[in-house]
Every structure is written in C-alpha cells, then in structure tokens.
Model the fold of this input.
Amino acid sequence: MPENYDHYITKNIKAFYMRRLPAPILYLLLLFLTWHLFSLSTLMAPGFLDSSTTLETAYRSDMEYVRTTLKDLNFTGYTQRFLGRTSGYFYYTMRSGECIIVLLSPGTSEQGLPVIEEVSIAGKIIEGTESFDTLLKNLSVDLKWTENGIHSKVSRYFLSEPGCNRAGNLLVFFVLFTTGGYALVSLIYFIACIFFPRLSPPCKNLSLFGNAKKLLEQAEDELATLPQLATEDMFITEHFFIETSEYGNAIVPINEIIWIYKYSTLHKFFWYHFSISYTLHISANRHLYIRCPKNIKSDIDGIIDYLAEANHSILVGFNEANRLKVQKIQGTPMHFEKFIAFLNRRI
Done:
C-alpha cells in the first residue's frame, strides 16, 4: 500500500488507461497487416483492366480484383456448383491475343446464354488449379483440340465474377471499418484520458453532484491528507468513497450513496472450486451505479460497515425491500413502468 497519496486518483486513472492502450493498438496493427497482405484495397476498389494487359501480368502486378469489359463470350457448357446450386457459368473469349476462361454469375449470364456479345464485370483473377485443368481437358475434347494445344492457347489464369462477391465484400468491409473505427476512437479516447484525466468517466460522474473539478480536488486532498479507511484498492475519506483498482476507478460522495451490498462469485474449473470473490455494489443518487469486483470478504465488510456508520440513511444488503425503496427514491429511468402500463392498456 503506498505511503504517499498525492494525486493518487489521477495517477491511477492514467495507469488504468495506459494498461488499455495495447489492445486497440494491436488490433489496428492487425487490420493494417491484413489490409496489405490480402490486398483489400483492390477488393474495395478494383482497378480497371484494359485490353492490352493479360490476366497473368495483372495477377503478378497484385491486381487480383479488377474491372473490365469483355466481348464475344461463348458458353463452354460447363458450370460451377456450390452447395447443390449452380454458382457460375464458364465462358471463353479472346482477349489480348490469348483465349481466356471467364466464370460469370447466373445473373450476368442469364443462366447460361450461348453467346454474350459484351459484358462489363468486376471479378477476381485466379490461377488455375487441378479442377481448372480438368475443365480445359474436357473443353479440348469438345472443341476437338489436343490437351497440349488448348493449354498453349488458353491462359492458365481465369477471371471469376462470383469470386468478387459484392455482398460478402460489403459485409467484410463493414466489419473491418466498424471495428477499426471503434478501436481508433477508443485509442484516441484512452490517450485523451491519460493526458486529461478529468475526461474519464469517474471524474465526469462527479458532475452529477456538483463542480467535478472542485470535487476531484477535494477527494485528492482528503486522500492525500489521511484516508479514514483503506484496503488494497478501496478508500474512504471524510466525504468520499474511492476505488482505484485494475478493473476501474470510482469517486462517490458518501452523502449521495443510497444503497450498498455485496455479491459473491464462486470461481471453479469444471468440478474444482478454487476460490470465492466478492463484488461491492453501490447505488447513488442520479442513477449512478458502481461495481467493485474481485475483492475479499473482510475488505468489503469493512467498507460496508464504515459507510453505513458514516451515512445512516444508506440501505445495506440486497433484498426486495431495499430494491423497492431505492426504486422509490430514484424513480424508474425514462418512466419505463408507466410506458409498459400504457402499452398494456393499448393492447
């Protein structure tokens, strides 16, 4: 337990947000690496593939996703199936002096038109695999070409329109931008709270009961002078209850507290019970609720006894009678019960 409590609350608020910095930083770094390793920029905005660039050249230039216009496509008679349904139709066409295979979606090909004069699509360039070689082998038989002949004329890369799944891509980018935005905002907020602790929730909550700056200074002075009761991470001064734990920080004027109780949690691994921890719950005026988790029973009992003695109007213990008293004092937020009664009458 520290002997010097000068600016102890603000120091712990800064330390709390310092511990939270690595999570958003690592997540943003992971997003950055994912964006570049999987070329997600080309997936979001596919580059235009002009008629003079072959599929292989584009693929080796990291243009995996492209937009292009194709002419004179002929249906091969072969389709791609996924989960029992036809997901694409294979066509071939001449482009840049080579024959290429194009996989069109059912909507674009209108369920396999024999000939398509012109179509503009966004697709993914894919290097041929064993299944692609099987397609070329079967196609060579249909066209009465030799297998070596068709491999020499047909590009070993093909363009897949279903491979550029717009709905799936939109979902991916929505998740990436939403989570990335949340991580970025969290990072900025954590940094702000480190440099300006008064922006943190524990300090802002004090504004519910008066001038937050003056109340924080008063709490700091009382804690620095001499706390009247101190545990490992909970303190009671003349006018304040203060928590400075790794799970969060809290500052509550004692005269604003209306209900306190403890809740026990049994920690176990399968059938083995290895510990019990206790959480202190505090309800204050203006619908302020504080939880102080993972404490030992003796510390919480001491805090509850001292607070009950310091403010005789505090309700102690969790029971239905106390819950109803607190509800009567605080009222129901947003008149929820009245709203339910109104709906019941309407129904």
Observations:
- The mean pLDDT is 88.
